[in-house]
Amino acid sequence: MANRYLLGFDIGSSSVKASLVNADSGKCVASAFYPEREAPIKAVKTGWAEQDPQMWWDNAKLSLKKIMAESNAKAEEIKAIGISYQMHGLVCVDKNLKPLRPSIIWCDSRAVPYGDKAFHNIGTETCLKHLLNSPGNFTAAKLAWVKENEPELYEKIYKVMLPGDYIAMKLGGVPTTTVSGLSEGMFWDFKENKVADFLMDYFGFDNALLPNIYPTFSVQGEVTAEAAAETGLLEGTPISYRAGDQPNNAVSLNVFNPGEIASTAGTSGVVYGVLGDINYDKKSRVNTFAHVNHEVDKTRLGVLLCINGTGILNAWVRRNILSSGIGYAEMNELASKVAIGSEGVSVIPFGNGAERVLENKEIGCSINGLSFNKHTSAHIVRAAQEGIVFSFCYGMEIMQQMGMDIKKIHAGKANMFLSDIFRQTLAGVSGATIELYDTDGSVGAAKGAGIGVGIYKDNNEAFSTLDKLMVIEPEEAKRSEYLNAYSEWKSQLNKLNQ
Fold this sequence. Notes:
By secondary structure, this protein is α+β, with helices and mostly antiparallel strands. It has 17 helices and 23 strands. The protein has a 7-stranded mixed β-sheet with strand order 17-18-16-15-21-22-23. The longest helix has 25 residues.
């Protein structure tokens, strides 16, 4: 039987990763990423962040070349291509499909005043009922900044795209997008199930700037002769899936249905849950987008909670509180010797900038309840990990108020999820079962492409071979201890957040 492979790209701001998955076994046969050191982010002014879209394309080609050599796969054996990408970026191209300026990426904050002004002028109720969010610092607001500050360039724009749309265009030769993508840019009206004309009119955008819309799981284009010559791929290979990195992380963990949760806990942390009804948080403390399987008659929304101060706090504690040479495994061992609640020490982990879950307040990180006569560095290590978990649970309460019933959390076994303290505390406070898997975004994108071309009939078939590494059940006997510690942490937070 001839090999059938699926190709997945993950277009990050640090690197571009490519993976080749055997469609029949479901196993990843090769992966590579470029650059090997973090890709540059250009910051002309404070709060700005830009990248050259051509750099993403060049790194995608380098990653692809390496995995093709490593796997000995033939171009004709690749049956579909999927793309995951950094969310909320803005790419502007001219009629020759050439970028007119560097991409304004997700962590660029210059557009905040434009989104805030639109929220006020259009009306908070209108925005929330139709967009499910404030226009905020998303792609539409970034385009408004370009329109006002670079008017001559703006007049040359043929199409605006997200980073994943750009890579799909480089492969397929035609600008296209998805409802999920438009929703993350604040271009989608959930109430009318179409492009948000009221927002386009407010900013003075022509609807023709937006690419044609395709379903997330569908043949959205085919590799052109030009792209085939550049990449070594076979002309005509279908591009059949794309999604932002957080929806795609959920896909990678087979999170498709209401109440299911996908989580990551790296430098920053994310809890992404699927909601089965149209709803929103009135204070925009969490963001709501169309999930990959959202349809007019089958609501599937992705509710996104982001906590900036996650693994970065754990890393800070290791560097600044502990002796040199102590690794994360030893930190976890130290923390395990301290009781739940860290004997009264609580850490508020918000030291990595303003937090959306706190309505964009910047309250900083603080250590509370410290006794010089009783507490040690081990108490701080445990309290830091507990504080990160508690911040997740604080945000998850907002998701529950929106109607989400959280019973199971899916995550990759990586970063903070390597810590038993972190896992047990999250299960203990939330009451949810945690399942840890071996997967990543580029592999998820590859399998998404398999669904898009019909190699897999649905997500359950596509992810039937997903390796479940560990299941963590809540410890009912200790539940009250976890909840008491969380209650004490919340009281400290409330004092700081007044």
